[in-house]
Amino acid sequence: MRISVIGAGSFGTALAKLVAENGHDVLLWSHSKDTADAISSQHENTIYLKGIALPESIKVTTDLAAAVNHAELVVSATPTQAIREVYANTNLAVPVVVASKGIEKKTHLLVCEVFKQIFGKEREQNLFFLSGPSFAREMALKIPTAITIAGYHTERLPEIQKVFHNDYFRAYATPDVTGVELGGALKNVMAIATGIADGLKFGSNTRAAIITRGLAEIARLGEKLGAKPITFMGLAGMGDLVLTCTGDLSRNRTVGLKLGAGMTLAEIQSEMRMVAEGVPTTESAYELAQQLGVELPITTAVYKILYENKPAREAIKELMSRSIKFE
C-alpha cells in the first residue's frame, strides 16, 4: 500500500519506519527542509530520532501536495495546534490515521472533531485515531508495544489494524473515538502534574495519587462528552497515562520536572525543539471544563502554574487542602 506519513517529528518518523518495515511504500512529509535533507542523505532523522537507522525505502518530501497525491492511506502525526494549517488546502479522499493528541485552543475541540470540521462529517468513515502507550524511540527500537486504534465504523478497523500490526507492535481496536481521543489528550496534563510533584521531590505516594485521581478527572470529563468509561481502563486511558506520567522519555513530564525545579515555562520552552502537547492542552481542557461545569482540580492546578504563574508548591498545597469527600 502507498502510505504518506504527514509529520516528521519523532513519532511520525517512528510510524514511517514501522509501516515501511511492514512492507508498505512510504513517503514521509516534513515541514522542515533540514529534517528532510538529513533523512534523505543519512537515512536517519538526526534531529528528532537521533541514532535510529531508517529503511532506505522511505522517501521524504517537503511538498505536501506530492505526499497527498502519493497516498492510498495517510498517517497524520502533526502537532495538534498545526492541524488546520497543514490540511487547510488539501482534499483527502483516502483513509486517514491520526496520531496527534490534544485539544485545540479556542475551539476546545478534540482532534477528531477538528478533522471532521476540515473534511466534513460525511467523511468520518475514513477517519481513524491511534493512541496508547508508545514512546517513539522504543517503537523504533522494536520494543514490544501495544496501542489502540479507534474508528467510527468498526467494520473498517481490521484493515487499518493490519497496516500497523506485527510481532512487536500490537494494534487493538475500539469504536470509542471520543474516549481514545480524550485519554490521549489529558494524560499529557497529568504528566506535567506528576513531573511537577517529582521536581518538588514529593515522592512515589504523591505520584501514585496524581495518576489515580488524574484518571478520575479524565473519566469525569469523558462521561460528560459521551465516552465509554471502560475505555479509560485500557491502553488509551490508564496505559498511556502511566507511561507518560512515569517514563523518562515523556516530554510533558520533563516540562513538569523543570517547573517543579523552579524554571519558568518560557525558559523551558526556549530549550525544547519538540512540542509538549500538554501545555496548550492544559489551557484548552481547563476552559472546556469551565464551560461544561466539570470539576478538574489537578488540571486547574496545572493551569494556574502554567498560565497564572502560581508557585508550584503553593498550587499543590492548595490542591491537597480541598474539602474532604468520598472517592
Keywords:
N-(1-d-carboxylethyl)-l-norvaline Dehydrogenase, domain 2, alpha/beta, globular, G3P_DH_NAD-dep_C, 327 residues, NADP, Rossmann fold
Rg from alpha-carbon coordinates:
19 Å
Q: Helices and strands: which structural class?
A: alpha/beta
Any idea what the CATH architecture of the largest domain is?
A: 3-Layer(aba) Sandwich
Secondary-structure element pattern, one letter each: EHEHEHEHEHEHEHEHHHHHHHH
The main sheet comes to:
8 strands, mixed
Number of domains: 2
Q: Identify the strand order in the major beta sheet.
A: 3-2-1-4-5-6-7-8
Low-confidence stretches: none
Please give the number of β-strands. Answer: 8
Assign the CATH superfamily of the largest domain: NAD(P)-binding Rossmann-like Domain
How would you describe the shape?
globular
CATH fold label of the largest domain: Rossmann fold
User: How many distinct helices?
Assistant: 15
Strand content: 5-15%
| CATH class wording of the largest domain | Alpha Beta
- Relative helix content: 40-55%
The averaged pLDDT comes out at 95
Oligomer: single chain
Write a structural description.
This protein has two domains: 2-177, Rossmann fold; 185-320, N-(1-d-carboxylethyl)-l-norvaline Dehydrogenase, domain 2 (Orthogonal Bundle), CATH 1.10.1040.10. The relative contact order is 0.11. The chain starts with a strand and ends in a 7-residue tail after the last helix. Strand 1 (2-6), helix 1 (10-21) and strand 2 (25-29) form a beta-alpha-beta unit. The model has no long low-confidence stretch (mean pLDDT 95). The chain is globular, with a radius of gyration of 19 Å. The protein is an alpha/beta fold and 327 residues long. An eight-stranded mixed β-sheet has the order 3-2-1-4-5-6-7-8, sandwiched between helices. Helix 8 packs antiparallel against helix 9, helix 8 runs parallel beside helix 10 and helix 8 packs across helix 13. The chain has 15 helices and eight strands. It has helices at residues 10-21, 33-42, 64-70, 83-87, 111-119, 136-140, 157-164, 177-199, 204-225, 235-246, 251-260, 265-271, 278-292, 297-307, 312-320; strands at residues 2-6, 25-29, 59-61, 73-76, 96-98, 127-131, 145-151, 169-174.
